[in-house]
Amino acid sequence: MADPKGFMTTPRQEWPRRPVEERVRDWHEVYAPGGLLPIIGKQANRCMNCGVPFCHQACPLGNLIPDWNDLVSLGDWRAASDRLHATNNFPEFTGRLCPAPCEAGCVLAINQPAVTIKNVECAIADRAWEEGFLPPQPPDRLSGRSVAVIGSGPTGLAAAQQLTRAGHTVVVYEKDDRLGGLMRYGIPEFKMEKHHLERRLEQMRAEGTKFRTSVVVGRDAGAAELRARHDALVIATGATAWRELPVPGRELSGIHQAMEYLPAANRVCEGDFEDSPLSAAGRHVVIIGGGDTGADCLGTVIRQGAASVTQLDIYPQPGTERDDDTEPWPTYPKIYRLSAAHEEADALRTAPAADADARLFAASTFRFTGDAEGRVREVHLMEVDAQRRPLPGTERTLPADLVLLALGFSGPSQEDGLIAQLGLELTPRGTIARDRAFATNVPGVFAAGDAARGQSLIVWAIAEGRAVAAAVDHYLTGAPSRLPSPISPDDRPMRV
């Protein structure tokens, strides 16, 4: 460690965000351009270079966090980039989109604010691109084996890059017209501008990875035919089967799934539409669901100029400090966090009746009512207790002419026929069953990411992609793979 007293003399300072009034008028990232580099060296210096760095255990990628913190504090950006990319294919994605379980596991977080690991990671990744530290890495020789990867989200891309660099011929099939999966059409531009994605895709093309867009495997291309054409097949389609809200009035128009709403807004940023066909402009919006997808909807609704927006969270409002009895360090605690979108909603007072920022906590929707034309007009809700049981006498209504359901996902979609055509076995949760080598019941077919693990974080998705690549490489060569395998299918986040 460059300064053994850095954590005692330097307070935590995060990447500053642009003023709310400025950033809600555009779709650029919320962070102040150039605001990270002036502070990041001292922030990296807060790392204590612990003898037992629990940040390693908290991160499924096993990122060498103390190593690259030390190198950043010393100004050695190339070496820091080498350490970072040794374990993470896409740190510019995780540095913007990951909720940073590594910071919850930081030893400093036992009694002080954690090291800003996520900000350091993002600074290294961006500096690496600026300085030209990331040239394509095509393989020295080809193996003569080919792999089809279905899905171009973070799992599919990580698996494809690892397998391409190992010498296999990889073709990625994507159902949408552009690559990236949820990073393309689910993540709003203000959280990650898509030029970061395009830059990495260009690197992968230069390395030899091939991409096929607008191909729904199971419909446009037969799954069994694809399996016969390649030596191995990796299913990384994600968990796209969204959860429903089966309450009276659900059939009213104006009630949409979050993943119907967000892609339309992202397509405006891509230039496909001048205005979103599901715009919130001038409308009273209610978002049902308190997770990250709900927050993504919130920031999007604000930028579209809604008349009001309220977000409903069925869980009680968490405290601002970790509960050491129920969620002890180094687990990732459920605490009150203020995302950029919630900060915007609070500053603009989008929901005056909310408990905090735009959120109503411990709130459960039990019906919708509409007008004579069948359009939604009100959301009826009740307070619930800690077991999510309705509390009599707490009924209330919110005006709503646009309702967004952000209730999460239950597993991979089966509408395209991929699972049925291959005869894949499923778990009781509806995810694709696999063994400890990521292999399904069909020889040569592997499953990774949310399609098999269930809905999870981007850092777990990349870890799954790297691990399944090692498993496929071993299957194709018959020899122990030299590719890293950071996790097993049974690994789970640290919890009590």
From TrEMBL:
PROSITE patterns (UniProt xref): 4FE4S_FER_2 (PS51379)
Keyword Oxidoreductase attached: yes
Pfam families on file: Fer4_20, Pyr_redox_2
Domain of life: Bacteria
Record-linked InterPro entries: 4Fe4S_Fe-S-bd, DPD_II, FAD/NAD-bd_sf, FAD/NAD-binding_dom, Glut_synth_ssu1, Glutamate_Synthase, Helical_ferredxn
UniProt keyword terms in alphabetical order: Amino-acid biosynthesis, Glutamate biosynthesis, Oxidoreductase
The keyword Amino-acid biosynthesis belongs to this UniProt entry's keyword annotation: yes
Pathway(s) served: Amino-acid biosynthesis
Record domain 4Fe-4S ferredoxin-type: where: 38-69
PANTHER family (UniProt xref): GLUTAMATE SYNTHASE [NADPH] SMALL CHAIN
Name of the molecule in the record: Glutamate synthase subunit beta
Provenance organism: Streptomyces thermoalcalitolerans
